[in-house]
Amino acid sequence: MMKKVTFKNNQHEMAGIIFFPENFEENKKYPAVVISSPAGAVKEQSPSLYGRKLANKGLIALAFDTSHQGESGGEPRNLENPSERVEDIKCAIDYLTTLPYIDTERIGAFGLCSGGGYAFNTAMADRRIKAVAGVSLSDPGAWIREGIDGNISVENQIKFLAEVSNQRTFEANGAAPIYGEFVPENITDDMSVTLKEAHDYYRTPRGQYPTSENKVLMTSIDKIMMFDTFRFVERFLTQPMLVIVGSKSETYHYSQDLYERVASANKELFEIDNASHVDLYDITNYVDKAVTKLADFFNKSL
Questions:
Q1: Residues in CB range of 159: below 8 A, 6 or more apart
Q2: pLDDT by residue (tens digit) across 265-291?
Q3: pLDDT tens column, 174-215
Q4: CA dihedral defined by 92, 257, 293, 84, rounded to 10 degrees?
Q5: What is the pLDDT of residues 26-51, one digit of tens each?
Q6: In terms of C-beta density within 10 A (0-12 exposed, 13-18 middle, 19 or more buried), how is residue 282 classed?
Q7: Measured on CA atoms in the order 242, 247, 252, 253, is the torsion positive or negative?
Q8: pLDDT for 123-166, tens place per residue?
Q9: What is the 3-state secondary structure (H, E, C) of the chain?
């Protein structure tokens, strides 16, 4: 069972989907998990797949569209702003606390790719999150600053920031906004495996969805580059935590780095053999392994 919902994030409406366990009874209290999406994804893609499967394991799951994207409100459109991504998660938890069937002492956060990075960042400050997990976790700030392989030089990072700064000046003086792509519309041989697989998921019938436009404002870039996703995890990330990563994932180092740094005494890095980063978005045998692990983790930790 599922239901479309809306909730407030300051002055705009957020669009979400709640997934309910089988034989749900409104007069009972249930643990709940907020699901944060990869950059550029919408709730109907991998977040809903995980939401349905987690609900089948007895958890209420709330997936939602990021501010400025999908069916959620927020201007300008197609903005990716890490601080707002974090606020989105907090507002989703605010909403869950208003529902009579949610056990407000048993709320967890979970995210895929950059959504995982934002979930962990949020958990440090929002102590209503009693357990936190990520699948194919990424560090969105580091990825944009340094590249997936960490090879973008500081000199080139500064040049990119200068381009974004100049674009703000152009737009302030009447120029049209410039948009980039979350994932490549066309692939080339020299692209990373992850980008090729992301194209296959987001830009083909495999995972494509109309409200996932693959369109991001250029003026998002400085905001992402300046976001230090895992700063303070050695101090404030004390909740039970789980990271799930494919053994073949090019983003494995993000999960490993986080796992080694967190303050939590209850932590696990769970590897799924032969899976890549994007395999964990929708490939059934890999997703089912991830969901079984997530459900066990949340049911024990919440």
A1: none
A2: 999 999 999 999 999 999 999 999 999
A3: 999 999 999 999 999 999 999 999 999 999 999 999 999 999
A4: 10
A5: 999 999 999 999 999 999 999 999 99
A6: middle
A7: positive
A8: 999 999 999 999 999 999 999 999 999 999 999 999 999 999 99
A9: CEEEEEEEECCEEEEEEEECCCCCCCCCCEEEEEEECCCCCCCCCHHHHHHHHHHCCCCEEEEECCCCCCCCCCCCCCCCCHHHHHHHHHHHHHHHHCCCCEEEEEEEEEEECHHHHHHHHHHHHCCCEEEEEEECCCCHHHHHHHCCCCCCCHHHHHHHHHHHHHHHHHHHCCCCCCEECCCCCCCCCCCCHHHHHHHHHHCCCCCCCCCCCCCEEHHHHHHHHCCCCCCCHHHHCCCCEEEEEECCCCCHHHHHHHHHHCCCCCEEEEEECCCCCCHHHHCHHHHHHHHHHHHHHHHHHC
Residues in the chain: 302
The whole-angstrom separation of Cα 133 and Cα 204 is: 28
Report which residue type is found at 221.
I
pTM, entire model: 0.96
